[in-house]
Amino acid sequence: xxxxxxxxxxxxxxxxxxxSEAAQPLGEVHVVAPxxxxxxxxxxxxxxxxxxxxxxxxRTHSVSGTPTDCVFLAMQELLPRRPDFVLSGVxxxxxxxxxxxxxxxxxxxxxxxxxxxxxxxxxYAGRDADHLEGYGExxxxxxxxxxxxxxxxxxxxxxxxxxxxxxxxxxxxxVTRLGRRVFSDSFMKGTDPSGRPYYWIGGGTVEWAAxxxxxxxxxxxxxxxxxxLHLDLTNHALIQGVAGWGLTV
Length: 249
Ligand code: MN
Known about the structure:
The structure is a single chain. Helix 1 (14-23) packs across helix 5 and helix 2 (67-78) runs parallel beside helix 4 (104-114). The protein has a single domain (2-179, 211-243), classed as Stationary-phase Survival Protein Sure Homolog, Chain: A, CATH 3.40.1210.10. By secondary structure, it is of the alpha/beta class. The strands form three sheets. A nine-stranded mixed sheet has the order 3-4-2-1-5-6-7-13-8. Strands 9-12 form a two-stranded antiparallel ribbon. A two-stranded antiparallel ribbon has the order 10-11. It is built from seven helices and 13 strands. The longest helix is centred in the N-terminal third of the chain and has 12 residues, at 67-78. The structure holds manganese (II) ion. The site of manganese (II) ion has 7 residues, from strand 5. Manganese (II) ion (MN) is lined by residues 8-9, 39, 91-93, 105.
């Protein structure tokens, strides 16, 4: 089995190393990852400047682009053949609830799904990365249960979040739905040396509706959260309703 590992934190990130090492027993692991931090780049594809790929080790390339660029190039150019599976992460930071819309980690997995290749996004749900390396053994046990190219549901990816605790204290795995998060104070305003205002997005405190059955609830309770995601954003229940508006041109 040929496995592509990628991420959005850059090819040198600790989380990517933990993931690619845990995946080794599953097959031939290749790494194609951005040459620098590309967090929160969502599903962007670089189209207005050229991108370059550089061999930076055995079966490892860095790419001067986004996570989506990495998967796109890996699929069509850099790997000896199309991968059987794509793993994205382990991201340094949570990707739960609405995060999945901004996340480069999740988007890389989505891009694989667009290509028809099964994929999993993995994130460490803490701001510190204290326990990240410790997750190697847990992932080595979990990945073989998830990486099943023949049995994997089509048009679907799995979004995995690891609780920011000692992996030995993890209580188990919960299969969840996406929760809802609330940002507060998530940008700051300042004044540049020329006296003009600038805005800086990020930071703030994160709160979420801790409903049972959600990814947030599971991680908060010390479980690994596994959320199946599909790419069809259609609100099927509303097709009839909006059709009933009698829209004309
Ligand atoms: Mn990231």
